[in-house]
Amino acid sequence: MWNVLLSFSGLVALIQLLFLPFFPESPPYLLLQKEDKAGCLKAMKQLWGEGNYNTEFDDLMKEKALTKGTKIMNVLEVLREPSVYPQLCAMLLLLLSLQLCGLKIFRTANLQESIIPYVSLGVSISELISIIFCSSIIDRFGRRMLLCGGYVLMALILVLLETSLLLSDQFLWLRYCSVILIFLFIIAYGIGP
């Protein structure tokens, strides 16, 4: 029943994709990143209803003032910072645990048992690449764009994956397309949602 479970996550992603354009951006994002005070106040009213949000707005302005002199670090600078080593270790353990991910799909695609561990390792590497890539582009494109694009890509990839798995008995080369689609799905998920 893995295909039902896979379809369920696709359905949830589709519902989120349909409703996401109707929600405003995060007020802290609008104020701190985009420096849009009017948009921040408008988003607060949309999210929390009519009211006086001067206290919350003042808190965000204080946070903005505190972070004004703070340099935004890139990926390499974060890797060199000793204070984030515990978080990095936790993330790496999570990525390494992804080696067990997809074993059922790989077996369904009738891949040789001897290459499945290597394909699982490729899944982990895809996740790591997507995390690094996403952290590099999120400030440029914004969360909404990455979420919408990620969900659209994931939906397309899931349709192609299901099709390739259904036809893999007739066309042997589709087994390897399934593996590539899983890598692409993980990258799309890491970049977007």
TrEMBL record:
One of its GO terms (molecular function) is D-glucose transmembrane transporter activity. Residues 1-17 form the signal peptide. Residues 1-193 form the Major facilitator superfamily (MFS) profile domain. The keyword Signal applies. Keywords: Membrane, Signal, Transmembrane, Transmembrane helix. It is a multi-pass membrane protein. GO terms for biological process: D-glucose import; dehydroascorbic acid transport. It comes from the Eukaryota. This is GTR9 protein. It comes from Lanius ludovicianus (Loggerhead shrike). The gene is Slc2a9_0.
